[in-house]
From TrEMBL:
Residues 14-262 form the EAL domain. This is EAL domain-containing protein. The keyword Cytoplasm does not apply. Keywords: Membrane, Transmembrane, Transmembrane helix. The chain holds residues 379 to 641 of 641 of the full protein. It comes from Neptuniibacter pectenicola.
């Protein structure tokens, strides 16, 4: 049966990844790369998004789209997520001390981490230790992972908001959920999913108009062309991210003071 063989292979791959993830932190196999978030009005960089990279001991590069869901299932996402939190805050502090005092750091957080009752405490401890303002930390949570029935997750979101971090709703527009949660949860920013780019379609413009109505800021992801950038800028979408500006790079190659100009 080809189907059984296929699923057995997939199962083995998952087990193999779980085993390799086990020592990945101790072996220094993870790193973070950073992608700028650009203010479309003037091309300046306002923040960067930390994205996780993994090269295994065997030298294989495995993407977060593959290993994050596996780490969520195995529970390993908690330790990995804490490592990311620590590293990204530390990098934010380095840039802050280098004079980029308003440069914020966006960190992707799994819904499994939101269920961890220690999460907001852990973040606030890191910020205290680094003496870094909470407003410089942006927490990205995917729309699909928002479970409004989960009391612990909702409590964590409110704790984070009270701490002063900004909350970003990632992959916005890809979920099927009813939008009423937007008025109950303390989200500040919508990130339009890159599947809606290039933006010459009604979905992106509808989301931008809705963001304006709701008084939420909008970040468009996946901007790859100048045409797309100009379209979004004309619609008064405030921020954008994408290969047009810069691919994610290691901190050593990132210039927080760079300005992008296409006019
Ligand atoms: P995401 O948060 O939606 O991140 C955006 C993804 O789009 C990134 O892929 C980024 O490299 C890619 N991207 C950026 N600009 C462009 C563009 O112009 N065109 C295209 N086609 N793609 C672009 P990446 O780094 O492979 O990450 C994939 C996903 O893995 C992320 O999607 C996020 O959901 C997850 N992820 C990454 N790092 C972390 C992490 O530290 N923690 C957690 N929980 N999830 C993470
Ligand atoms: Ca993200
Ligand atoms: Ca996204
Ligand atoms: Ca995504």
């Amino acid at each position: 049966q080809p189907y059984d063989k296929l699923s057995a292979t997939k199962q083995n791959r998952k087990l193999d990844i779980v085993n390799q993830l086990h020592h990945a932190i101790d072996n220094n196999e993870f790193s973070l790369v950073y992608q700028p978030v650009v203010k479309l009005a003037d091309g300046s960089i306002v923040s960067s998004e930390a994205l996780l990279r993994w090269t295994t001991k065997k030298g294989e590069t495995i993407g977060p789209d593959e290993f994050i869901p596996i780490a969520e299932n195995s529970g390993q996402i908690i330790d990995i997520g804490n490592w990311v939190l620590q590293q990204a805050c530390q990098q934010c502090k380095i840039w802050h001390d280098a004079g980029a005092t308003h440069h914020a750091m966006a960190i992707n957080v799994s819904s499994h981490q939101l269920k961890d009752p220690q999460f907001s405490k852990r973040l606030s401890d890191i910020l205290t230790r680094l003496s870094l303002p909470a407003a410089l930390i942006h927490i990205e949570i995917t729309e699909n992972s928002i479970i409004t029935e989960d009391k612990k997750s909702v409590a964590t979101l409110h704790e984070l908001s009270e701490l002063g971090t900004r909350l970003l709703l990632d992959d916005f527009g890809t979920g099927y959920s009813c939008l009423s949660y937007l008025k109950d949860l303390p989200f500040d920013v919508l990130k339009i999913d890159k599947s809606f780019m290039p933006a010459n379609n009604t979905i992106a413009s509808t989301i931008i108009a809705m963001g304006h109505e709701l008084n939420m800021e909008i970040i468009a992801e996946g901007i790859e062309t100048e045409m797309c950038y100009k379209f979004l800028k004309n619609l008064k979408c405030q921020y954008g991210q994408g290969y047009l500006f810069q691919k994610p790079v290691p901190a050593s190659e990132f210039d927080t003071f760079k300005r992008f100009n296409f006019d």
